[in-house]
Amino acid sequence: MKSRIFGKISREIASWQVGAIPGFTVVGLVILARATGLLQSLEWGAFDYFLRLRPAEAVDERVTIVGINQADISRIKAYPIPDRELAVLLQKVQKYKPRAIGLDLIRDVPVKPGHQELISELKNSKNLIGIEKVLPVTFPPPPTLPPEQIGFSDAILDTDGRLRRSLLGTRTTQGYKYSLTLQLARAYLASEKIFLTNSKRDRHAMRLGDTELPRFLTNSGGYTGADAGGMQILLNFRSGDRRFPVINLNEIKTGQFDPKLLRDRIVIIGVTAPGVDIINTYATTGIDRMNGQVYGVEIQAHAVSQLLSAVLDRRPLLQVWADGWEYLWIVAWGFLGIVLGKLTQSPGKNLLAVGLSGLALLGMSYLLLIWGWWIPVVPALFVLLVLGPTAIAVYQRDRTLKSRIQERQFIIEHSFTSIHNGPLQSLAAFLRLAREQDLPQEQLIVKLEQLNHEIRDVYEFLQQEPLTQDRSLYLNKGLAVDLQAPLHELLYQVYCSTLERDFPCFKTLKVKIQTFDPVEDLRLNLTQKKEICRFLEEALCNVGKHAVGMTRLSVTFTQKEELYVLQIADNGAGIVSTSTEGRGTQQSRNLARQLGGEFQRSPLPPRGTLCQLTWRRAKLRKWVIGSRKS
Amino acid sequence: MAQNSPAAVKQKIVVIDDHELVLGGTLDVLKQQYPEAEFFTAKIAQSALNAVETYQPDLLVMDLSIPEETGTTARTDTGIQLLKTLLKKYPTLNIVVQSSYVKALVRIKPEIDAHKGGFTVADKSLSSKDMLTRVDWALQGLTHTKDLKSMRSALEFKPEWLTVLTLAFQEGLQDKAIAERMCVSERMVRHYWTKVQDVLDVYPDEGKNIRIQTEMRAREEGLID
After folding, report:
1. How many Cα atoms occupy the beta-carbon half-sphere of A394 within 13 Å?
2. What average pLDDT does this structure show over A339-349?
3. Which residues contact A530 (CB under 8 A, 6 or more apart)?
4. What is the least distance, in Å, from the CA of B157 to any CA of chain A?
5. Phi–psi pair at B114, nearest 5 degrees
6. How does pLDDT run across A124-147, given as a tens digit for each residue?
7. What is the pTM of this model?
8. Considering chain A, what percentage of its residues have pLDDT values greater than 70?
9. Which H helix or E strand runs over B155?
10. A41 — phi, psi (to 5°)?
11. Which has the closest alpha carbon to A266: A218, A311, A223, A302?
12. Scanning A305, A351, B90, B161, which has the fewest C-beta atoms within 10 Å of its C-beta?
């Protein structure tokens, strides 16, 4: 029992192995492509696209952008904006008591007129953060600002020129520095008693209050070998068309805005005019619906906003799986591709299954991204789409090959059975006769001619007999019997036809006892019926060859309730027992096993041989359907 | 047996043959022998079945080679199929099969063996006198299938027929006791006897005891010691 289960399992494994080679190859190639960065741009593309596809979020109520737009510049007729204009702007903004101001404008050198006024305004603005640039080309911050009021505005772009990350802090020649984003968030959160600390899990990472900031690593997500210097996090853009309130310079001057938009908020002042401070990204639409481009000041707003929302609203920050899990995920989808290839029987169904699985993968990746997880969708989709169709091709080919081998085996078995039950039996009888006595020439020729015919007949039977719908049983002298007939009739035909054959031991027969009980609904399929008929034929041939001096032969097929007995008994000399089991005996044992019954051949005292096949009526309902169908 | 005397009850006989001439000839012979009987005829398998169904005859005389329907050619297969149906539906019907190729009946030997009514076979080349004898035996419920046996072939029995022989001649039991032993009706035992007699080629003969004849033949064949 155990070995049978084990055999079944090992056969099952063997049948899967065919898909292993293409499976390993494709998954291996995709993993290699990913590891060498070939898939990076595709993964970035999918990432940007999914981010953009997300449902819109509410307008941020903590961050307001004060943008100096093209109209403002035209009105002032000067660029850069003179220091005096800026000083006035700061004064007006400060009146509404914002919690922090980010001055996203380069003021390392005086822009006259009004430089002194700006200096004094900056001195009075303890809630203002100015910018500098630290990597690798630098510019200094506005003069007079103390270090805690300075943040860098460097952005790290990817090799495709797009922004997906936010740099929060970095080591410089003048020590460790924070970005404008982080400085603004710190200033805002400080009034909520939330402070920046080091992460407990990752000593290079940061923590705002109890919110861990997931540090960007060199191979995070779809990235391969990216510069992960300093403390970076992925930029989880705020989605939707209106993300931050925007007030322009003129509106501030003329007081045409809602004071609520400034009070107790973070106000970021920057330029929102084309051609000045532009960042490329496809992950969000620009303020002015510029395709793929966003003003630098808005990027600052996104970066600050994602920190504040993460800490205060528990809005997710973007995270990725560890590399091991990512590759396991890819392998799993490759495996699914192979499974679909193995289980689906037709290319159409396979295409449908692979298509549906692909959609499920995309949907799952999208949902996970909304919840803050960026998982490898492109490589997984790739292995699935390649392996599904490949696997079905491979398995189909394997199945065809196997069925051909099976067919071949069947033909061999079938041919041998036909030869064994026909000419071989006659030959055996003839040999026996020849050994016992000297045969005259004519008789020899007659016998050989008879054999010649029988062998030719076999070829004809095989020709006639269709392999697939094998509904006939071919008996001696080309007699064909329809296997659809009830078993007792078939057996009678076999009995008559076999007894007519020219076997030496039949000649002494004086009394035949036969009965074939009529039975209905035996629950046997055609093959089983055929095998039972062949069993009787074989048994009678044996009697004809070995039952020397037989005078009485009894052939009975009887039914007692659920038990069927096919019995052949003679009173001849019987088979001289040989050490090896003949092929006929093996066939009989196989048949008995198949029917769940028993085969028995034993001497019958005082003289004779009993050959008996017993089986019970099948109980399974399933079987009945099977036998009726066939 | 009641049917034995032609005058007692009005007998009903169905004759099936597709040949007008042969049918007429058979009818003439039968009418002379059984003047009191009622005769019905059929030429095709379908109407034959209907006739048997409607008249419930005491005897059926049929040709094996008949057409299925009017217009189709006569085939032995059709007759065999019809006979098979009749044997199954009317297990006690007395039947005489007339044919020029009686060997075809070998195919349904098991059904004939199981039939409880009279069953005799008459080759068409038989003389009228012999034919009438077969008809008479069939009416008596006897079996006569000697013509189906091949010359050198061994005697063929059903196990229960041999049991009857053994019980009667080795243990000396009478039919009633045999029936009790075998758990069958006495009528069934009588039916077995007719089958045994047919196998041993023992048929009614003027002035001879059929049981004793049977015993002698059985001993001759070594069926009983």
Report:
1. 21
2. 84
3. A470, A473, A483
4. 5
5. -85, -10
6. 899 999 999 988 888 899 888 999
7. 0.55
8. 93
9. strand B155-157
10. -65, -35
11. A302
12. A351
A157: its two tokens: 């772009």
- Determine contact: B105 vs chain A, CB below 8 A: no
Structure tokens, B18: 């597709």
Find where tokens 């041939």 sit. A541
For testing contact with chain A, the best of B88, B106, B156, B162 (most A CBs within 10 A): B156
Non-local CB neighbours of B154 within 8 Å, separated by 6+ positions: A509, A510, A511, A512, A553
Edge-to-edge strands of the sheet including A266-271? A150-152, A128-132, A100-103, A266-271, A63-68, A246-248
Measured between alpha carbons, how far is A551 from A511 in angstroms, rounded to an integer?
6
- State both tokens at A224: 């391969």
Q: Which residue of B has its CA nearest to A550?
A: B154
* Amino acid making up residue A137: V
A576 contacts A548 by C-beta, under 8 angstroms: no
In B, minimum Cα distance to A514 occurs at B158
Give the Cα separation of A3 and A281 in Å (integer): 62
Token digits for A326? 């990512």
Tell me: pLDDT of A460 over 90: no
Nearest 5°: phi and psi at A135? -130, 140
Cis preceding linkage at A113, omega within 30: yes
HEC assignment per residue over A203-221 = CCCEEECCEECCCCCCCCC
Under DSSP, the state recorded for B103 is G
pLDDT band at B223 (very low <50, low <70, confident <90, very high): confident
Alpha helices in A313-377 (DSSP H): 323-343, 347-370
Alpha helices (runs of H) in A425-579, residue ranges in sequence order = 425-436, 441-464, 487-499, 526-546
Those residues whose C-beta lies under 8 Å from the C-beta of residue A148, and which sit 6 or more positions away, are A183
Q: Cβ of A553 and B154 within 8 Å?
A: yes
Q: Is A496 on the interface with B (CB under 8 A)?
A: yes
Residue type, B174: Q
Spell out which residues of chain B touch residue A553, defining contact as CB-CB under 8 Å: 154
Q: Are A515 and A473 in contact (CB under 8 A)?
A: no
